[in-house]
């Protein structure tokens, strides 16, 4: 698995197994993912599966330091000013003594910046290897950058061929903030798209593999989600081909700023 360095020199594998909505068979799926070669798991308190993730990591027998684990601070905990308590609860559910990356899940109005500043303290205590944000658009990030002492290592946002966020990705890279893509397959909605099917045929790959490759070639960390073992395996088998410049452009041209699920400006979770 290829990795890149975050702005604090922590190493992060470029594909993570996203476990949103993976509930009943979480342990089995994470174990399978680890067996197929994933070394990066992306969970959140709100996914209600941190225990299963932790159990699978322990059962795998893979040394802890070889697996990168992300979890996230949920909105209700931000509203209740419970940043530190919520973090310790996640740590306990995961059964770990540190997490690799802790993210503010959504930019909860009047709360997320203060919560991030508390996460800085946990980072300074060595309980988190890197801290960052999720779902922050530029106008959420700028005020945070004015107040923080530690520039977020990561911003995890919705990116896929119908919401390419090209300019914003450039901005984040200039700020030395790594970009992670959630819903990278457009919630699965783009897997039957004619243009992507055409590209996939040229490379003899699946449409999911083409989209994952498109993310990687744009320098984005990609978090595909699946409950199906064959697909979990398929989604990591993307290191033996490369999309041409023309095909990258063809996929990028699908952008129409479609947001699947909550939009950072209108969410009310
Ligand atoms: P499933 O979990 O049943 O495998 P996204 O990551 O963009 O949110 O997309 C997730 C959706 O895409 C899920 O519905 C998932 O279904 C589906 N999916 C993930 N990987 C693949 C794949 N390789 N082939 C087909 N569908 C996939």
Radius of gyration: 18 Å
CATH topology, anyone? Answer: TIM Barrel
Taken as a percent bin, the fraction of beta residues is 15-25%
Oligomer: single chain
The main β sheet shows up as: 8 strands, parallel
- What's the architecture, going by CATH? Alpha-Beta Barrel
Low-confidence stretches: none
Distinct small molecules bound, one entry per kind: adenosine-2'-5'-diphosphate
The portion of residues assigned to helices is 25-40%
Provide the residue-averaged pLDDT.
Answer: 97
Number of strands: 10
Overall number of structural domains: 1
Number of helices: 11
H/E topology pattern: EEEHEHEHHEHEHEHEHHEHH
Spatial arrangement of strands, main beta sheet: 3-4-5-6-7-8-9-10
Name the CATH superfamily classification.
NADP-dependent oxidoreductase domain
Characterize the overall form. Answer: globular
Q: What's the CATH C level?
A: Alpha Beta
Describe this structure in words.
The strands form two sheets. An eight-stranded parallel beta sheet has the order 3-4-5-6-7-8-9-10. A two-stranded antiparallel sheet has the order 1-2. Helix 7 (166-174) links the parallel strand 8 and strand 9 (178-182). 39% of the residues lie in helices and 16% in strands. The protein has helices at residues 26-36, 50-60, 75-79, 83-94, 112-124, 138-147, 166-174, 194-203, 207-217, 229-234, 245-252, and strands spanning 3-5, 11-13, 17-18, 40-42, 68-73, 99-104, 128-134, 154-158, 178-182, 221-222. The chain is an alpha/beta fold and 269 residues long. It has eleven helices and ten strands. Helix 1 crosses helix 2, helix 2 crosses helix 4 (83-94) and helix 8 packs across helix 9 (207-217). Adenosine-2'-5'-diphosphate binds next to helix 10.
